[in-house]
Amino acid sequence: MRYSPILVQPMREELTKIGFRELLTTEDVEQAFADQRGTMLVVINSVCGCAAGMARPGVRMALEHTRVPDQLVTAFAGMETDAVDATRARFAPYPPSSPQVALFKDGTLVHMLERKNIEGRDANEIAGELCDAFDRHCGP
Length: 140
Fold this sequence. Notes:
- The chain is an alpha/beta fold.
- The chain is built from six helices and five strands, in the order H-E-H-E-H-E-H-E-E-H-H.
- A five-stranded mixed sheet has the order 1-3-2-4-5, with helices on both faces.
- Strand 2, helix 3 and strand 3 (71-76) form a beta-alpha-beta unit.
């Protein structure tokens, strides 16, 4: 299902305005993950309510923490299907979900928030979990 670009633009901008680079093609995905060193936060963005009310605000708050990932990338579910599929292929053994937030360190998946870990929590709880992961994996 492809959503209206006009509908999703503000949702994209919630992340791109705070420094996320969009993964729009499989080539973008390959480039982001090629020889990935350091830490990278990957957000599968979505139009759903838990993305709007919990995931994106939680990610924004977490990025105000003292330790943050070196790179920020995002792909939008329901839009650039090939890029989203290529990104999710890196999430094994986790199944696809929307939204989804993954932290990689030196190319290895070290933390995952699936939709089931996002629903029913507030943005502060999401931010707290991400900050804990940043403390464990980001920085010196």
